[in-house]
Amino acid sequence: MGKVILTGDRPTGKLHLGHYIGSLRRRVLLQNEGNYDRMFVFMADVQALTDNAENPEKIRRNIIEVALDYLAAGLDPEKCTLFIQSQIPELAELTTYLMNLITVSRVQRNPTVKTEIKMRNFEANIPLGFFCYPVSQAADITLFKATTVPAGEDQEPMLEVTRELVRRFNQTYAEVLVEPEIMLPENATARRLPGTDGKEKMSKSLGNCIYLSDPADVVWQKVRSMYTDPDHLRVEDPGKVEGNAVFTYLDAFSTDDDFAQYWPEYKNLDELRDHYRRGGLGDMKCKKFLNTIINNMLEPMRQRRHEYEKDIPEIYNILRRGTEKARETAAQTMSEVRHAMRIDYFDDAELIRRQAEYFAGGK
Ligand code: TRP
């Protein structure tokens, strides 16, 4: 059986450097390596609506933002099927059947759901749709028979639920669904990029993001005011690189080539770190270097985005075609699911013949 990659994002905001380093960059590599038979990337608008029910306009607006971010980052609709979750009705259908194979208490134990309930102050009043989203996510993954799901650590509990559901389904009905594996980000910085304020995580609600679509001057404003070492007051002072966002970003984004090209006084990041620790190296110099690196990385994305923005109706066409393609796979799996569950009444000539015989024979 083929290897299938599937992953998605909730379209609740524009994508930022944290998304890029945590997953988007990897997806583009996976797409271009071509070691997988199929690759699906989708916008999880149904899931986004589970905690944004009153604000559909926000989701609607961000579909196009995320689509532009995907395309700008280098996802290629010829190699990777891009689609919108809500436009695949088979997902809702599979979710309904999977819900019979899991208990409320099993979902309650999901640590990611627990954290999200707290964060959203849902404790007293959890929307049922929100509560069920892990099952809906299991449907996202299994409907396409995904083998590999590139995602962050926080998604591991969803994958566990998915594997349990696959085993339950296959034991109860027939061997139709496929157990997926998570593909975690390659290293610690990729797992969690801090915000420009040095806080643990880059996130829209904290207002500490550099967006993939930020113009160069905005990136510079943000980099210039980045959190460093609060005790590094004068250039001569020794500085700390741990917890210093500028150095965390350099760790994530700089290469030895960047040093050779833009800062040949240092061979690599280790040498730069040593100098910073000893003292005598100012924050501003480091920030300028970081700014160059980030802008070099974002510039090709800006240019591609700019091209794509000229023809927005074509973006919707790309998503429509991707969705149609995804639906072919969805329909195929659902017909196997219905057959396995013995709810394929109209396609089962044998069933109809036998029932006719039974009733004709006076039972
Ligand atoms: N839960 C994921 C997130 O919050 C989005 C998502 C929905 C997803 N369905 C998925 C990710 C299936 C991977 C596979 O980002």
Automatic annotation (TrEMBL):
Q: What is its EC number?
A: 6.1.1.2
Catalysed conversion reaction: tRNA(Trp) + L-tryptophan + ATP = L-tryptophyl-tRNA(Trp) + AMP + diphosphate + H(+)
Give a GO biological-process term: tryptophanyl-tRNA aminoacylation
Cellular component (GO) terms are: cytosol
KW Electron transport (keyword) present: no
Please provide the record's keywords in A-Z order: Aminoacyl-tRNA synthetase, ATP-binding, Ligase, Nucleotide-binding, Protein biosynthesis
Q: What class of enzyme is it?
A: ligase
Among its keywords, does the record have Coiled coil?
Answer: no
UniProt-listed CDD domains = TrpRS_core
- A Pfam family (short name) is tRNA-synt_1b
**PANTHER family assigned:** TRYPTOPHAN--TRNA LIGASE, MITOCHONDRIAL
What family, per the record?
A: Belongs to the class-I aminoacyl-tRNA synthetase family.
- Protein name per the record: Tryptophan--tRNA ligase
The scientific name of the source species is: Leyella lascolaii
Q: What gene is this protein translated from?
A: trpS
